[in-house]
């Protein structure tokens, strides 16, 4: 009978090659991780130094890079930002950021409560939550999209000589930004938002949403928006408001339309307003913002005789020209310029 020669030896050499490849891959992965960890540590230090040179002190307590071997992240036990020139100081709990080693262009982060923001002109503002998560994706032009989700946020004022004064709470708040060609898509939402101020106790919890596109504003994600006011950013811009809505459960309203903002900050556009129970909405607006009681009642009245009925809502067209709002030929008020 013929026997194969060298069979076991060939198998042994194959196993040795497999082990060698695994060792090389592990060594390469380890080397890449430690290289990227060093780069991350260096870049964070550079950001902190650059901010300090501009007069803003950032402190990341017990800064550490973690996640070996498949994740790469930065951890701080607490974060402090102090900008004396702007009169702002902010402190928060622990920060954790991480990216998968095979997808380094997508970063996720968690921030622990509380966040306390102290300004020169107002009492300290305190934000607490159950969970705050953010994510950001980067591509060739920089930041490509970003998202923020906060579970059960509560906003309050804090004063050393007094108890916390809760202002508002919500079940969930979300914000999404996305670069689309040269435009910027913005989506915001809050669920079961309630004012805790005693004077607004009659206003029920509301669910609100905003969905719009600002044309030519994609570069805001690359840092173009830093240091500018809303009025400065929006001057000369056009956009599409797909939805601005607020739902109180027994009454709701939604606004949509195309708009533009002049160099003077004045809004122009053609909008469609849909309201369920206009009288109830007018009463809630008056309770929340007494200065808007008159225009809210005017719009409710206009809806009753000029609006059309559509899916249980009263719908009316609104024309805005250089801040002046009208329903057809009926003037409704004026929107101040963006600042």
Given the structure, what is the number of helices? 4
Portion of residues in beta strands equals over 45%
Considering DSSP H and I runs of 4 or more, what fraction of the residues is helical?
10-25%
Overall radius of gyration: 27 Å
* Class derived from helix and strand content: alpha+beta
Major beta-sheet overview: 23 strands, antiparallel
Characterization of the model:
There is one protein chain. The longest helix is centred in the first third of the chain and has 47 residues, at 7-53. The protein has 339 residues and is of the alpha+beta class. The chain has four helices and 23 strands. The chain has helices at residues 7-53, 230-234, 278-288, 293-306, and strands at residues 57-60, 64-66, 71-76, 79-83, 88-92, 95-100, 103-111, 115-119, 122-128, 131-139, 142-151, 154-159, 162-169, 172-180, 183-195, 206-214, 238-247, 252-261, 267-276, 308-310, 313-321, 324-327, 330-334. The chain has a domain at 227-338.
Q: Characteristics of this structure?
A:
elongated, alpha+beta, 339 residues, 23% helix, 23-stranded antiparallel sheet, 49% strand, transmembrane, single chain, DUF2125, DUF2125 domain-containing protein, 23 strands
Structure summarized in a few sentences:
InterPro entries: DUF2125. The protein has 339 residues and is an alpha+beta fold. It is 23% helix and 49% strand.
What is the topological layout?
Elements: H1 7-53, E1 57-60, E2 64-66, E3 71-76, E4 79-83, E5 88-92, E6 95-100, E7 103-111, E8 115-119, E9 122-128, E10 131-139, E11 142-151, E12 154-159, E13 162-169, E14 172-180, E15 183-195, E16 206-214, H2 230-234, E17 238-247, E18 252-261, E19 267-276, H3 278-288, H4 293-306, E20 308-310, E21 313-321, E22 324-327, E23 330-334
Antiparallel strand pairs: 1-4, 2-3, 3-6, 4-5, 5-8, 6-7, 7-10, 8-9, 9-12, 10-11, 11-14, 12-13, 13-15, 14-15, 15-16, 16-17, 17-18, 18-19, 19-21, 20-21, 21-22, 22-23
Helix pairs in contact: 3-4
């Amino acid at each position: 009978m013929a026997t194969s020669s060298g069979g076991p030896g060939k198998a042994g050499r194959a196993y040795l090659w497999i082990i060698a490849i695994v060792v090389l891959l592990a060594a390469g992965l380890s080397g890449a991780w430690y290289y990227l960890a060093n780069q991350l540590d260096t870049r964070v230090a550079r950001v902190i130094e650059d901010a300090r040179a501009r007069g803003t002190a950032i402190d990341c307590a017990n800064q550490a890079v973690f996640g070996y071997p498949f994740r790469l992240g930065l951890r701080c036990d607490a974060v402090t930002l102090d900008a004396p020139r702007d009169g702002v100081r902010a402190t928060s709990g622990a920060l954790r950021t991480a990216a998968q080693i095979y997808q380094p262009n997508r970063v996720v982060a968690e921030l622990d409560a509380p966040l306390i923001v102290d300004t020169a002109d107002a009492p300290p503002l305190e934000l607490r939550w159950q969970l705050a998560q953010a994510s950001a994706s980067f591509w060739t032009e920089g930041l490509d999209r970003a998202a923020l989700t906060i579970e059960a946020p509560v906003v309050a004022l804090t004063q050393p000589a007094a108890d916390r004064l809760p202002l508002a709470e919500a079940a969930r708040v979300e914000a999404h930004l996305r670069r689309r060609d040269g435009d910027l898509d913005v989506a915001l939402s809050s669920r079961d938002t309630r004012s805790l101020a005693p004077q607004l106790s009659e206003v029920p919890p509301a669910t609100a949403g905003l969905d719009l596109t600002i044309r030519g504003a994609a570069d805001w994600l690359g840092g173009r928006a830093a240091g500018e006011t809303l009025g400065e950013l929006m001057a000369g811009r056009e956009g599409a408001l797909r939805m601005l809505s607020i739902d109180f459960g027994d009454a709701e309203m939604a606004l949509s339309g195309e708009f533009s903002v002049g160099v003077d900050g004045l809004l122009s556009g053609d909008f469609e307003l849909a309201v369920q129970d206009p009288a109830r909405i007018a009463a809630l607006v008056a309770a929340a913002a007494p200065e808007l009681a008159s225009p809210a009642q005017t719009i409710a009245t206009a809806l009753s005789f000029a609006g059309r009925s559509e899916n249980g809502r009263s719908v009316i067209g609104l024309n805005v020209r250089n801040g002046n709002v009208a329903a057809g030929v009926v003037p409704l008020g004026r929107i101040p310029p963006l600042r």
